[in-house]
Amino acid sequence: MRFEGILPENAPDPRIEQARLLKLMPIPVMGLVPQPALEEMDTVGLQSSEDDRGYSEMSASLSYTLWRNPNDHSDPINLADIDEEQRNAHEYVPPWPRPAWLVEHLERLRYPLLWAAVQTSWHRDPSKGPSVDEQLVDHVNYILMNQFRQERGLSGYPWDKPAPDVTVRAVNHRVKVLVDGVEVPAAEIDTDPFVYGIGAELHGGGVVTAVIPRAELGHVRIEFATRA
Questions:
Q1: Which of 104, 132, 136, 160 has the greatest CB tally within 10 Å of its CB?
Q2: Which secondary structure element, helix H or strand E, spans residue 198, and what is its range?
Q3: Does one domain contain both 42 and 98?
Q4: d(CA 227, CA 184)
């Protein structure tokens, strides 16, 4: 969520509209299995395309708060790795009332975020949509582009050459992953220095992918389950 200007205390909670739109997803939304180190953010990233027949494709992305020490949320190790300026911005309390949902959202930003970590994608005509490999590559590059610009040598200058993007040549198929407790063939990208990615086709149609920062892999169990 992004906010601009001063929101009145009674500003509507955007999660209500997100929940309404999420019901339009033709297939169940997948997430990571419940685990102590992860707490699902209650905001869902939704994207869709339409034509004269209705929705032609949709995707839903889930983000998670990461608890490096899930047994003690007050442990400083759980705080996000940000500089002092960013931390002061998160802790600043303005002299005007704010919506309760906004205060809650800003509080969560004090902790590490696995942003858009799991994506469920649906295409009305699977034969015309991207393959599991292509969907995984797109997800990996999306995370790299948005979360690892500095690490990849990117800046805001348009003449800067971007670091090489991940391509389908990086995909490995010699792996499996659990989806609702069932082991299924998977596609994996384990060659990027910053992130690890894995994805699979869903039995009822669609694709699920996960992209996790390598620095946090030790805290995360990558198994998929239908989101409640």
A1: 136
A2: strand 195-201
A3: no
A4: 18
Nearest to 114 by CA among 79, 164, 158, 64: 64
Q: Which helix (H) or strand (E) holds 117?
A: strand 113-123
Residue 180 and residue 75 share a domain: no
Please give the residue range of the domain that contains residue 140.
28-66+113-226
Cα–Cα dist 171/193, whole Å: 14
C-alpha span between 15 and 1 (Å, rounded): 10
Q: How many domains does the chain have?
A: 2
Residues 148 and 122 in one domain: yes
Lowest-confidence segment of 88-92, 156-160, 183-187 by average pLDDT: 156-160
What count of residues does the chain have? Answer: 228
Quick one: which of 117, 34, 107 has its CA closest to 73? 107
Backbone φ and ψ for 201, nearest 5 degrees, come out as -75, 145
**Integer Cα distance of 222 and 67 in angstroms:** 15
Specify the DSSP element, H or E, that contains 141: helix 132-147
Write the pLDDT tens digit of every residue in 29-77. 999 999 999 999 988 898 989 888 888 999 999 999 999 999 999 999 9
Cβ–Cβ < 8 Å for 9, 98: yes
The residue to which tokens 């590490």 are assigned: 112
User: Residue 159: CB partners within 8 Å, gap ≥ 6?
Assistant: none
CA–CA separation, 160 and 146 (whole Å) = 16
Quick one: 131 and 219 in the same domain? yes
